[in-house]
Amino acid sequence: MLRAFARRLLASLAVASGHRPRLTTTLSLVVFLASAVYLATHMAVETGTDEMIDPRLEFRQAKADLDAAFPQLAETFVAVVEGRVAEEAEAAAAMFVERLQALTDRADDAFAAPLLPFFKTHGLLYRSVDELDLTLAELAAAQPLLLSLADGPNLPELLALVEAAVDPVGGLPDDLAALVAALTQRFDAAARGAEVVPLSWRALTEPAAGEAAAPIVVAVRPELDPTRLQPARPALDAARTAAAEVEAAMPGVAVALTGRLALNAEELRSVSQGALTAGLASLVLVGLVLGLGLRSFRLVLVTLTTLLVGLAITGAFGLFAFGSFNIISISFAVLFIGLGIAFAIHFVLRYQEERGQGQAPDAALGRCGETVGVALAVCAPTTAISFLAFTPTAYVGLAQLGIIAAFGMAVSLVLSLTLLPALLVLANVPPRPLRPQRFRLGAKLRLGATGLALALAVVAATQAPQARFDADPLRLQDPRAPAVEAFRRLAATPGTNPHRISLLVEDAGEAALMAERLQALAVVDDVLWLERFVPSNQTAKLALIDDAFFFLTIPESQPLVPSAADELRRSLQAAATMADADLAAFAAAAAAAARADALALVELEAAIFRFWPQLLDDLALALEAAPVTVDDLPPALVQRFRAEDGRLRLEVTPALGIDGPAAMQRFVGPVQDVAPGATGSPVQIVRAGEVIRNAMLQATLLAFLGITLLLWAILRSWRELAFVLVPVLLAALLTVGAGVVLGLPFNFANVIVLPLLIGFGVDSAIHVVMRTRVLAGAQALGGTSTPRAVLLSALTTIASFGTLALSAHAGTASMGKLLTLSVLATLVATLLVLPEAMRRLRLR
Fold this sequence. Notes:
Elements: H1 2-19, H2 21-42, E1 45-46, H3 58-69, E2 77-82, H4 86-104, E3 110-111, H5 117-122, H6 129-141, H7 143-148, H8 155-165, H9 177-192, H10 201-205, E4 216-220, H11 233-249, E5 254-258, H12 260-294, H13 297-322, E6 325-326, H14 332-356, H15 361-370, H16 372-388, H17 396-417, H18 419-427, H19 443-463, H20 482-492, E7 501-505, H21 508-519, E8 524-528, H22 538-551, H23 565-575, H24 584-593, H25 598-609, H26 612-622, H27 635-638, E9 648-654, H28 661-674, E10 679-680, H29 681-715, H30 718-741, H31 753-773, H32 786-804, H33 810-841
Parallel strand pairs: 1-6
Antiparallel strand pairs: 2-4, 2-5, 3-4, 7-9, 7-10, 8-9
């Protein structure tokens, strides 16, 4: 009785809409225009994966506590400044901060420890006693060089010094070997017309430091503009401008932006562009497939119009319900196109079939409403259940997509029974008998195809247990994005790995205890906190520095006065005559450089002495070191380790690279065993991965159970229920196995695939089973529009989902690939395995 009432209701709705096509269409278009305006004026997208996890979870609360205590560490980006030598990197970083201040007036929120004057003055105290003794000995050995160039730092004077230092018997002194080697490289570059790398005088006076420069990381906390779609956009634009000015002024320097805000901006760009491209490509491809399948321009126009109206309504609902989309829910458009179009296809093809059999429009709409309308009324809630299955989980980001998409399925159902019938009447497509396209294969071919599908399922079953979940959110982003590339370079460089763990403690006593316990872990390289910035053994070190202050004479830096090109050429020619065996390469390079043009010679000297004044200034400051206590530490540093409420922050760095979730787990596990309240990006990634893995399993189970109960309530037949569910399970097995073989792990973005597969896989099977129920068994199915509708729906869904695979955003692309695989698997299970099973078991 209830079924009969539902059939009459759906039939009446379709017929009523067809009776008043203009009124129905007008009302629908008014809703469409209102939705489109709301969508355009309220569009907002939130990036980042942290916010997509339930904030009530313990690890999320620990991170929120840290952000509240140290807001300057929360919403930031960093500039990674790289130079060819250490002095160049420092000069570039200082220039970047200066230019950023001029552009944004926020330089007080830019922090880089190497730029702090405090470390220029007290830097020697942070070396061990032995290291300091060696450094001071090296400075003593360089004393003649410093004094010789005090009055006139120029290349002729330097070459004369080298020549005078060569012993006719002993050859080149060891303490000048590094200088000669560095000069040889620069002479060679000048001779070749290449850019001459500035000379690192710091490396020459402190050989242990080396000439290679580590990148300098400038952390910037910008002022955010909450009125913009990208609140950090003005600050990031200013930073990019500052970086470009630095790179233009210092050609050997590279400045890259990364960190939380920069990565989020890059992700928003790639997701938004990917969603827009995928959405437009989906519409185009779906339109082409519809043209081939429906073979009527008017029917294609009717179908796409219904789709676009539903898309606008669904998008407006998403923004109204949640205020913004996230990096996953922004994909609702492609999902709606791929799944919503199936509703219209089944209705339109059935309408064509009924009209082709001589039915008048009203009668054809009534028949569609009470047959395919009933099937759609079953499909809509089953698909909605698969989307809503994430709602009870802690993965609130995907729950948002689920609610939006579930609402979209309801919209598709309503529009398929209201606007679509009205448009079909207005289009007035002439009746056309259904071509006798029987979707039949020979018995042997049917059995062979089914056997192959089952064999693939067996292979997939052996691979499925190897399915894995990749919890690293960085792998979801465009790997070619500058912020992503810079982040990976930081992670690969010792001392700059951004994957660090933070821990809040109440006082210095607890901090010292926790630091000692954490430092003992094999996975920990270092533990930083305020007391670590107070140098040890200061009495012994200050005594060494005081002694050096009396026997070392550091001349005042003098302005650099360029030598004349002719003088430079003569000095190089003289150097080329040095006959000592140790100086053969040096003499040859000098002879070659002497043949360079005048401008090249002037630039050579400038590059060699570019950082000479800085060396003298730094040495003079370093010899003024004084005792250091916590109270003497610079405020900019203290604020990063002591909160306003007095709590202290410990920063734990990993001993080894932690690229990948497994390596992060090896770092996070032992640290949290010692400090359960520890937080930071590694903890967030590992714990969020666990939440999402559990959410995927929970949602898949909920979707399967919910759909099974709903189908049983509707079908009331164990056999029909099995016919609907078995192809879905087969498709799921094939999808997971294919994902393992093709190297497509589950991640934050594509975990929706399995629950969704259950939803739309059931839809296809429902259409086949419910149509077969009213026919003379499975043998008669091939002569109807149903197989064609299932095939056409699958092809349009593939065309829609497949466009996601083209996205630059790796997470979105992985979702598109797995969804496409799942639709192909569903198609095989529904049009090959299911009909053969029904033939064998004689479903009537």
